[in-house]
Structure formats: C-alpha cells, structure tokens
Amino acid sequence: MGVVGNLSIDRIAGSPPRIGGGPYHAARAIRLLAVRGDLFVRCADADRRFLLPRLAALGVPLRVVPGERTAAFTFEYDGDRRMMNVDEVGDTWTPRDARVVDRRIRWLHVVPLLRSDFPTETLAELARGRRLLFDGHGLVRRPEQGPLQLDAEFDRDLLRYVTVLKLAEEEAELVGDVDVPELVITLGSRGALLRAGGRETRVTTRPLERDPTGAGDAFAAAYVVSRAAGHPPAAAARRATAIVGAALR
Fold this sequence. Notes:
Blueprint: E1 2-6, E2 8-12, E3 18-20, H1 22-33, E4 38-44, H2 48-56, E5 62-67, E6 71-78, E7 81-88, H3 95-98, E8 107-110, H4 120-126, E9 131-135, H5 137-140, E10 146-147, E11 164-168, H6 169-175, E12 182-186, E13 192-196, E14 199-203, H7 215-228, H8 233-248
Parallel strand pairs: 1-4, 1-8, 2-6, 4-5, 8-9, 9-11, 11-12
Antiparallel strand pairs: 2-3, 6-7, 7-10, 12-13, 13-14
C-alpha cells in the first residue's frame, strides 16, 4: 500500500512547531503494523531539514516531491472539538506529480489537508489501476488562510475515483449522501461508523489520554493496510480502531 499527501508544520495550543500532515501520522500506524507501506510526500524545499528527518526516523520508505510551500496550521482542542487556523496553504498535486507513485501499489491512501491538494484530474491519475481511500478534508476544507472554513462546494465527479471515503462527523453532515463503495465516518471518542455492502457497522473505541491529532490519518492507513491484506471492511475498521489507540499512546 502507499500514502500520498502534503506534510505540514503544526503548532498545537502554543507548543513549538512540530511535523504534521497525513503521511506522517499514517506512517506511525504503518510502523506499528510492521508492513510495507511507501510514502510519497511534498513540502517546501526550505523546510526539508526540519521535516524529513522526523519522518525518516519512522523507517517507512519515503519519496519526496519538490515543493514551494509547506502547509501550516495552528490549533487547539476542547474535548473532541478542534479549533484550527490555516497559516499556509500547501502545494497542489498535478497529474504529473501523481505519476511518481509506484504503479505496483494497488491500494493508496490519499490524504489532502485542504481542498486544493488533489484536484479531480489528479485523483483520476492516482486511481488508474488502484483502489483509493480519500480523506474528506479534500472535499470540505477551503484552501484559504485564516480560521478554517468548511463548505460542500466540491466537485462531486471526484467521488467516482474513490473506493473508500473517510469523513469526520462534521464533514459527513456537510457532504450529505454520497455514492461510494465504502464510507467510514469517524466519531472521535465514540469510535467510527462503517457503511459497506449495504450494511452499517458501529465500531467502538476507548478514549485517548493525549491530544488526538493524527487519529483519523492513522485509522485510514490501518484500514487500507487491512483491506489490502484481504480483510473485509468491518474487520478492517475494527483493526484500524485498535491501531489508532496504540499509535497515539
């Protein structure tokens, strides 16, 4: 399996800057599962010395696409509720950029931070011969600096290339009904809801004892690893939930 997306620089509740972005949090789950998973990431060249050693330390195979801007966010938590500010919008991946992903990879976790990260034509290129898990950030998060704004003004044609759509609860409320083979709605400390094959499955979890940053990315990566290994959707969701708890502890 593979993971593709932008890295970010995160500042949480006044703490010093730290590495963020879907590929980093997904890599933590991949490391715990002790499976092969390739990362395809992007950040500004000027930020490589800060970000890449922290990512490489996880021991997951890594390929870096040259970039001009690194996404950056500041946020804090009130229970499951997150207040986020967009400090910088990261680079947009083009179809040409998407061709760096190894063609032998058949399951791909696509982790946009904002709607501008992966346009429809890029997702179409990534989906050639593959199954994609796409994160709902790429549907509802507006690519604008300032307090994070959500809306449902996305290109619904994008969904035709998606096998698994992962949405946070507030994203699911905005997006409404979608036609995808597998839909996962994460519910924070209340677990997750899976809809696949005409069935709905509720997966429970234990509350985390630290900030939940990256929980959704770790869940999605573990879900993709499990599906790629032949686990059915419900079993993959249960396994992914257990991995999130371990990864964030």
